[in-house]
Amino acid sequence: MLYFISKLYGLGAYLRRKLYNTGLKKQKKLDIPVISVGNLSAGGTGKTPFTIFLAKKLQEKGYRVCVLSRGYRRKSRGTLLVGDGKNIPCSWEEAGDEPFLIASEGIPVVVSESRYEGGISAIESIKPDIFILDDGFQHFQLYRDVNILLIDATKPFWEDSLLPAGLLREPPEFYRYADLFVVNRFSRLSQEEQKEFLSKIQPYKKPFFITEESIQGLTDRESVYPLDILTGKTAGVFSGLGNNTQFFQFVENLGKKYGFDVAKKVSFPDHFDYREFRLPEGPLYWITTEKDIIKIPGSIIKGHNILAVKYSLGLKEEDYRDLEKIIFSEKIKNKAGVD
Questions:
Q1: How far is CA 93 from CA 77, 80, 117, 237, 294, in A?
Q2: Contact, 217 vs 187, CB < 8 A?
Q3: What value does the mean pLDDT take over residues 194-207?
Q4: Are strands 212-219 and 234-239 parallel, antiparallel or unpaired?
Q5: Which of 68, 137, 262, 289 is the least crowded, having the fewest Cβ atoms under 10 Å away?
Q6: pTM confidence score
Q7: Which long-range contacts (CB under 8 A, 24 or more apart) does 246-253 make?
Q8: What distance in Å separates the CA atoms of residue 17 and residue 40, rounded to the nearest whole number?
Q9: Mean per-residue pLDDT, 55-76
Q10: Are 18 and 116 in contact (CB under 8 A)?
């Protein structure tokens, strides 16, 4: 039954792409270049941390960057300025958790059901040089100049199946609509697995870049602490992600490295609203993600000793320079005002 439903799902995805590829449905274009960061999977592949990394690198080069997002499960409608790079005039409930997290990094963000309308609003209010379209691989209504496809090395699209049998939102062969691949979580593979992964990705004949993971410590939203404050302690872990199991394993590996025990695991649905929730007694500390902790009231953070892992993705400088050359190809140099 799941196989049959997956086939129907794939047919729907194919027809939807075809409507835009044949021009039966028209894409809207913005005068500012749009870089899409997305994936084929419904599970987390590191889109938010990579979006933050890319936006900050472009800001370092002097570009005014704005992230366009739908604001999944936000408690507002229409077009909303989440942050202008300095101020965040709304709550995470109004913005959506991921846009709010991006804005908290000093990156302008606009959310809207219509990313085109959001872009028009941003051009008027923020005057950006470049847009980053968050989770944009399946958002066909807005024309994008560059398509970046993120791949989770621990679960690449060629090893997955369409929903609901697997986690793919589109057929694996739709990788061809990407201009380049960005590979996350490669370091979590064994050496043998890494060799196998590289042998599988190369035949797709797309430029690909492998990110590096970095952990800056733990935060309660007020201060940052070193990971060794957990040494010899008992901790619990919880999250509300698309793939909680992966985060739990990540924290367990940290426990082995820093000498703390993960005694309890609590899984919540993706984009969970934490205004009313309970954690079991026992652990001295509770570990979660930055995406989760921004939604938890300060009194609960303090009461349960909740700490979020400060986690980021990046590229080696030479790899980023190569990626930037692809992004600023001839087709968008003029739009972005690049020499």
A1: 11, 12, 21, 23, 10
A2: no
A3: 97
A4: unpaired
A5: 262
A6: 0.93
A7: 246/44, 246/154, 247/289, 250/188, 250/309, 251/287, 251/309
A8: 13
A9: 95
A10: no
